[in-house]
Structures are given as structure tokens and as C-alpha cells.
Task: structure prediction
Amino acid sequence: MADTVEIRWHGRGGQGTVTAAKVLADACLSGGRYVQAFPEYGPERAGAPLRAYNRVSSKELRTHCPVLRPQAVCVVDATLIDSIDVGEGATEDAIFVVNTSKDPKEIRGKLNAKSGQKVFTVDATKIAIDSIGKALPNASMLGALCKVTHLVSLEHLLEDIKKSFGKKFSQKIIDGNLEATRRGYEEVREG
Amino acid sequence: MSKVVAATGNEAVANALRQVNPDVCAAYPITPQTDMMQRFSSYVSDGQVKTELILVESEHSAMSACIGASAAGGRVATATCGPGLALMWEMLFVASGTRLPIVMPVVNRALSAPLNIHGDHSDAMGARDSGWIHLWSENAQEAYDNTIQAFRIAEHMDIRLPVMVCLDGFIISHSIERMEYLEDDEVKKFVGEYKPLNPLLDLEHPKSMGPLILPDLYHEFKRAQHEVMTKVKDVVLNVAEEFEILSGRRYGLFEAYRLDDAEIALVILNSAAGTSKDVVDEFRKGGIKAGLLKPRLFRPFPYEEVAQALKHLKAICVLDRADSFGGYGPLFMEISSALYPLKERPIMINKIYGLGGRDFLPQHAEQVLSELAEITKTGKFKIIKEYIGVRE
Result:
């Protein structure tokens, strides 16, 4: 991908979207890269639509404003596609990663994706219920996003999640998240 | 040896305070500063600092407690933002008038009404004349570096004045960015052992502080406060020089970005300066000689140095993230004063942007630079102060 990769996340409060953006930034620090991760702050409520952003670059990042032309769009809650334009400003060759059990082709149609844009799907909520026991799709989405953007290797991402979560959570939760990340990476499909 | 991390502005400044390990910190939580002091209070609870943390019932009390602790002879820090800084207002003047070297990160936030918690410079601009030294920071790295340097500036024996370190609320305080931390022992060595001056707890030498001064001497007292401010610039530069040896990062009174051969320039504080620098580069690629000046030391304001840096320009725009209703933006007024003594000076315009956290986008910098390029062709401008990024 380009020198600077800009990512926009769409999720709902309580799904761990902001945490996913933060973990991604941390994991992308490797190789001397510059990173940014920041959410859009509004009235934070569980279930309310929210956006978060990442920038990853080989050059110093000086711009401090929302991502307007994302090369990757990560939709953590597919019900948002009905109410907001998740594709707004996305580049002609943007990559979409959507959390859904539906067929990627069906989602592609729903997104009205342009010919150069790629649409991937992953059933991140199901993976989360299987591996963590809760409907927290962020780890699987992160795994899927890394697979399709090649920003970091799976091994590196897993190491970083271990490190970030190690201080705060029990071994059971960490293991569940690592499993969810791995499965998200493996099960993401293109439409 | 530095350590590369991905951290928020609040996290970075809290870490600087941990590394400095002040004797006393009195603070009251207020968004977007809360998370900084919450982190610092964890350091206190976990025994990572020896700081006595005083939890108070308001910012007025926070600054009062800091004043008491500093007068007693301790190294003291606090942090606040927006309405919290406004509530401290009375005590800010007591801290500077008593010459107490308190360090205070200010996470810039809008003032009410209407209630708004987002990034805006109205809070610190309101404290412009409080006798504090002001350092402004573009990003988490600068906020961290400025906080460490602030202790050296405040505590310098020729200065002994409080310092506020400004960083943009949410845009910097809550965004994660790549930055570098110095090692704990490097920071400890850089700030050095605290040397109290006339501490109240020196019981062998009793003294009183903050007495009533009548018209016979108050005027002289205030003039003395001005006199000490004239020495601040040199101290800021000397501390920056030492800091550069330690960190490899260079600081001055302001940042002059591509100004040497520039014809048009933006003057802008904090995080929006970063966004603007990328746009300046784009204009340079298009053959337009654009530049930027980002003030760092706002009080005392380096008028002569700023005038030297801007005098050759054809047109400049000063962008303010604060307003003086019925007047020009506060930064514009400083730059006008700086350029006034020159015989020939650039055409100046003023734009108010980003109030209450309204996004400052690259297109806003583009719009202003294009307007300046046009002004250089015609030599004419329509209006001095205007609002950009306003929804019509």
C-alpha cells in the first residue's frame, strides 16, 4: 500500500472499536513507522454509532484531523450500512472489511462498491461468541483487517495483543482474544 | 536511550510528571484533563512516585493548595483545562505574584456557554495576563518535552515563575501517536534536585508571604514582575539547548517552517500547525513560496524575534482558535504588535477557526494560503477578521 495508509472504523459504542484502533496503532509501530489512532468524540453511549481512525506511515504524521479519504474502511457493525454512508470519501481502490454472516457479494451490492474497491467479510461476532463468549467483534475484525491490508503480520499482531491485554485481563480473556484474532485473520472472505 | 511508544497526549504528560516526581500535586478532574490526572493518581497509588496527591473540591482549591505547597518549599504540579482554568483565575495571579514555580499542563478546552468540552484556546488566552509563562505544544511529543523543560524554566533561580504547558483537548490529549520517552534517570538528572527559595518551612528563618501592599509599592511590585519576564526568553533557549543534547529534539521560542524564502505564511498555534505544514509542502510543490510560524513561548511573547522572522513576507494570515468578541483574535493582536514597529510590513489578515473542537481540515489551510497568494498579486484584501469552517 501507499506511504501513508488511512483507515476509518465504523462501530457502535461498546463493541471495542476504539480499542481495536489503539491496538492496531501499537502493533504498527514496528519498523520505525509513525502511527495515529483516535476516535471521534461525541456523547459516548453503548450502541450509538461511532467512528475511529488510524494513520500508519513511513513518514512523520503531522496532520491532526479526521481521515477523509480512507484506503481501508472497517465496519464493525453491519447494521450501520443501512443508516450511514460508510463508503463516504473512500478511495477508488479502498478495501472494505465488514462484520457479517452474509455473503460478501451481497454486502458488495449493499455497499454499492466501485469496481476498483474490494469488499471482504468476516463473521466476527460469531467468532467472538465462540472464542471469548461475548459479542465483542473487535479482535476478529483486527485479525481480518491485518490479513487484507498486510499492515502487520499475524504473529506480530498476536504478540502485541498479548502485551497490551496482559496487564489488564485474565489469561482466559487474553487466550479468547488471541483465538478470535487468529480466526478473523483466517476466515475473512473476499466478495 | 529513548523508548518509542504509541501514547496519547494525556498519557505522555502524565508520564513526564511521573518521571519528574513532584513533591505535591493538587488536582481536580475535568474533561479532557481527567484522564491525565487519573493516570498520575495511579502512579501515586502504585508507589511509582513519592508525590503527595491532594484531592480537592474545585480548581480554585487545587491552585490554592499548590500555592501553599510551593510556598512551603516543595516542587509542585497540577493540571486543568477550560472552565477549570477559568475557576482558578484568581489564584493564578497569586501564584505568579508570589513567584512560585508551579508547573501546570493545560489541556485546551472551550469555555461555556454553550457547554462544550472540546479543543479551543479560549481558556489559556483568558489567562494571558496572569503572569504565567506559556508554552504551547503541537503534539504529544512536544507536550511531553515542554512539560519536562517547564520545570527547569519555572525553577530557574533568575525566574521563579509558574509555567503552563498547553496542548489541544481531545485532538492531542486523547489521540494516540508515535512518540519517544526519555529514560526515567535522564529526566531526573535533567530537572535536578529541587531547590526551594525562601521556603515557609525553613523555620529558622521565619517570613510572611502575600502581605497587603498599598499604592506606595504595588506599582513597583508589578513592574518587577515585568522585569523578570524579560529574562525568560534566554532561560527558555538555554534549557532548550540542554534538552536538545539530551533528546536530539530542537526547540526555540517558535518554530519557523520554510519561512526563510517564503512570500506568504500562516501563523498558527498547536495541533492545527501540523496539519498546515503538510499543506505548506503541497503549495511549495506547486511553486508557491509558502511558510508557517508556530509560536511556542506565548508569554513572554518574543516580539522582536517574531518580527525578524516575518518581516520579509508579502502577506500573512494569523489563525486563532479563540476569539475576542468585538476585537481581533488574541494571536493576531500579538503578531500585529510585533510587526507594528517595522517600516515595511506584510499585509495581515486574521481567521478564527476550530472553536469548540470544530475540525481544522487541510482544505481550510489551502483556502487561506490561496487567499494570501491572491492578495500578493493584487495587494488588496477585503476584510481583516473572518471565520473559516463555519456552517452556513
